[in-house]
Write a structure and sequence with these properties.
A six-stranded parallel β-sheet has the order 2-3-4-5-6-7. A three-stranded parallel β-sheet has the order 8-1-9, covered by helices on one side. It has one domain: Aldolase class I (TIM Barrel, Alpha-Beta Barrel). The chain contains 14 helices and nine strands. The chain starts with a helix and ends in an 8-residue tail after the last strand. Strand 6 (197-204), helix 9 (211-224) and strand 7 (228-233) form a beta-alpha-beta unit. The chain has 347 residues and is an alpha/beta fold. Bound molecules: 5'-deoxyadenosine. The site of 5'-deoxyadenosine (5AD) has 12 residues, from loops.
């Protein structure tokens, strides 16, 4: 089969064999990318219209106990200026966002044990109480199943936890000994079983990544069937062991986004900040490849520069309202609009 036929097969059967993934990801050209983006866009326009959901990310702590080799907030980065937001700070961010139409709040942070389960439950319950029409998404890493359950019971209904890479050996090269892919995938399984709309995902072009690893990512996602997928290019951070490695490929990222849309037509698929950082028009291109979510920053402007997962992260100095105007303009450039909606997963 040629690559177009493989893309058609994926569209029809929603899965490919490993050898087919290897061919497709290993040999695709510009025409193949164009072909898949057209199919992906047709699917997303058919499912969602030319409408983009927006989620406000509140980066509430950049303390992290982990030491992932790629990440700018890894615990051994002594140059990172650390901060934590209080419950009140977080609520102010939500309040501000709500005024402008945000209906999903994503609480994201490093793995920071300062925030006990009880504190998280308190924060989640309060947001849930004050903004009952909003969805609460968590992105706070690997936890015990019983903690995930408590957060769910308190009102969080979505969880983002990228698997980062589905290949064991590759996982080892990106993370210190004490982190394991098995544990991470177990967390993902727990989250889904509890009832969260669950997001996994990977970086493109991390050091030591081979095409076969990305094939494993695609196969893992076709089996796990996440409700959300986060994919962005790797971007080096100057204070990490991976400082001298190159950025991941924008073309490969866009191709994978379109293939994700084709494989999982209902999936909530953000055009990520990393994609927008690697290329100025990256997020627009992402939308044109089937992405239907954008996640602007709702963190207090003063701390944004400290949540640096990678160099040159596209941080806007704008408040929640300004942020949205810019986003609206970018989307209308390509004939899309942003909508005020929780944007839950719908089968
Ligand atoms: N480049 C791109 N993405 C990164 N992330 C962390 N560090 C980097 C980097 N250097 C991503 C990881 C993580 C998400 C919050 O940010 O995939 O899951």
């Amino acid at each position: 089969m040629n690559n177009r036929e493989l893309i058609d097969k994926l569209n029809k059967e929603k899965s490919l064999l490993f050898s087919e993934w290897e061919q497709l990801l290993g040999t695709f050209n510009e025409d193949d990318a164009k072909y898949s983006s057209q199919i992906a866009r047709t699917i997303s326009v058919d499912k969602f219209g030319k409408k983009i959901f927006f989620r406000g990310i509140v980066e509430f702590t950049n303390y992290c106990k982990n030491d992932c080799y790629y990440c700018g907030i890894r615990c051994s980065n002594k140059n990172a200026v650390r901060y934590r937001l209080s419950k009140e700070d977080i609520l102010i961010c939500c309040e501000e966002g709500y005024k402008y139409g945000y209906r999903t709040f994503v609480l994201q942070g490093g793995e920071d044990n300062h925030y006990t389960d009880d504190m998280m439950v308190d924060i989640i319950s309060e947001i849930h109480k004050r903004f009952p029409d909003c969805a609460i998404t968590l992105s706070i890493g690997e936890k015990e199943r019983k903690s995930y359950q408590k957060f769910f019971d308190a009102g969080a209904t979505r969880y983002l936890l990228r698997h980062e890479t589905a290949n064991e050996e590759h996982y080892r090269k990106l993370h210190p000994e004490k982190l394991s892919l098995k544990h991470r995938m177990n967390c993902l399984k727990d989250l889904k079983e509890i009832g969260y709309q669950t997001g996994c995902g990977c970086m493109v072009g991390t050091p030591f990544q081979e095409v076969k690893h990305l094939c494993e990512d695609m196969m893992y996602m076709s089996e796990f069937k996440p409700e959300m997928i986060g994919i962005g290019p790797f971007i080096p951070h100057k204070d990490t062991p991976f400082r001298d490695y190159p950025c991941g490929s924008v073309e490969m990222t866009l191709f994978l986004l379109s293939l994700c849309r084709i494989m999982l037509p209902d999936v909530l698929l953000p055009a990520t900040t990393a994609l927008g950082t690697a290329r100025g028009d990256g997020r627009k291109l992402g939308v044109l490849c089937g992405a239907n979510v954008i996640m602007p920053n709702l963190s207090p402007i003063a701390v944004r520069k400290n949540y640096m997962l990678y160099d040159n992260k596209a941080i806007s100095g704008e408040d929640a309202g300004e942020n949205l105007k810019v986003l609206q303009d970018h989307m209308s450039d390509i004939g899309y609009e942003i909508v005020i909606d929780r944007g839950d997963y719908k089968k």
